[in-house]
Amino acid sequence: MMTVIPLPILDMNVLQAIRSMPWHLRMPMRAVLLSLSLASCAGPSPPAIPPPEPLGPVDLQTAQNPVQDRLLDVGVLVFNAPDDGAASAQLDGRVVTEIAEKETHYLPYVLRNTLVESNQWGAVRVLPQDDPSVDLIVRGTIIQSDGLGLQLRIQAQDSTGREWINQVYYDSSDLEPVRLDEEVAQSPTTFVDPFSDIYRQIANDLLGRRDAFDAAELENIKQVSQMRYAAELSPETFSRTLEAGADGLLRTTSLPARDDPMLQRVATMKLRHHVFIDTVDEYYAALYQEMQPVYALWRSYSREQIRETEADQREAARSSRGSTGFTALSQSYNRYKWAKIYQQEFAELAEGFNNEVAPAILELNRQVHGLSGTLEEQYVQWRGILREIFELESGPAPVTE
Amino acid sequence: MILLPLLGQAATAADNIEILDLDRTLRPDFSGAWEKDFNRSDRWDQELTRQIEQMQRLLQSQSRGGGAAVGSAINLGGQGGGGNIVDLARLAEFISRQTTMQIRQTDSQVIIEREGEAALVCGTQLDAMETFTSPFGSEICGWDRRQLLFRITLPEGTGILHRFSVSDDKQWLNVATQISRGSSTPFNLIQIFYRYDAPPESYSCRQTLSRGNVCSRTDSTGDDDSDPFANP
Lengths: 401, 232
Hints:
The structure holds two protein chains of two kinds. Chain A is α/β, with parallel strands linked by helices. Chain A has helices spanning 11-19, 23-36, 85-89, 91-118, 180-186, 196-211, 215-233, 235-238, 261-318, 326-364, 375-394; strands at 74-77, 124-127, 136-145, 149-158, 163-172, 242-244, 250-252. Helices cover 55% and strands 11% of the residues of chain A. The longest helix of chain A is centred in the C-terminal third of the chain and has 58 residues, at 261-318. By secondary structure, chain B is α+β, with helices and mostly antiparallel strands. In chain B, strand 11 and strand 12 (213-217) form a beta hairpin. Classes of the chains: A alpha/beta, B alpha+beta. At the A-B interface, helix 1, helix 9 and helix 10 of A face helix 3 and strand 5 of B.
């Protein structure tokens, strides 16, 4: 039988002692303190929406010698953050929202790395927004991301407008054989992402769709992206080369000759543009490198926090209701107080994560080659500059009837 | 001739008028370091005696009038469904033991830090907000004109209401705590705090995840000095 220790005796000194502990020791201490007071307490727990079935272990399908003609350029867009108005309305919610925003830059880079690792694709880059020069665009929305689970909605669409995948992926770190916190504590930099299966599954699904296309279809996708980019630079000249079929998909109607001077200028501009988006991708890489160890640590704490909360809920449901008397009242108050103290400590942790990652985000958005604003804004400015250069080099656009 | 000096004074006074920011909700300034004034604060045992005597007088008058008890049930002891006044009084004393508190306030929020307790944090906006929810209890906060309120509800139904108000000269802080349970008579305890000058912070700290609290010395002007150290 568990002895009930009245928490008032512990209060002040224990709190001070815990606050001076490193974070990774505070979490286990919380469990000890809350379990010390088992008495009257019960409360309704919020209804939980069960997540989809988590992925099991997934092997990434890699290629030793990929067929060059089948390599498509892929752009993984910065993910969308979950729309959680209720959370951000709360004071702690603001911190959580900030973390989610940082994840929108971090998670697509993990997917990008997985696609590169598979060796099945051409250039794979993280992009701030849609780009007509790439063959396949992958969009992601973060539905859930914490230490225990990652749930993403992934949509992929090629340059013709054909949807490749549009589905929700879920992976749980519970299936991982290693203890995250121990691994993180030992070496955060060599930490293996606990949700790597999700990225492997997305990469395999994309590959499955690509392999369903024959060479002519893949060639059409490449041609459409080439002409979409050309039409963005000079709509007057190139928009006629594309048309939407009955199925709504774009296809090329006529192609300029390979030695067409306008097309050669487009190719030159595309090359410059790709140098730029390679640079943008490098910024995301730098952010990823900077965030990775701190993010791994954050996820580990998050996982512990969720497990503790679940244990608290189980304990609350188990406890009896309706006890009175000063001892019961003071113990009930103490449970409330400790639960709140630890929630505030966790919010402080989250703030620490945001503080630590903030310089990397600033670096990401710093001015590039005289451009200003966020990286997204610089990207728009750059595309505008390229259009202007193209017009200057090409002279006035031909008059069309 | 006579008006001119008056107009000059009016202009000077007008120059000193604080320009109101209409986008900002005006709230009393609670910020500062506060220490309990034991002489002016309620003593829980005396307050308990007073409330019990008051109840007894009420009971006597009701019995003389031959009427049944009206309003709240009066529970002086025992283990009924409602909380008895003695237990509620002891709980009020138990959660009001802090002798000092530090309050920080910005345009958007008020943070009340009390020794050995979770901080009470509330926004300055008009709407009441839920600031904490757990199986062990919940907390909402809001404003009642110039008073800042925190309402805590424990799972078995005990309610704790803290009502903070500050004097016009900002020298005194009044914290009224009410403990209630079911239909029983609530217990009220008022504590008075006076402002004191806390020594300025020697270090400016910033929380990080991997290095813990990173602090740097501040000089007398409050500017950061270059000597950061980590205190995980």
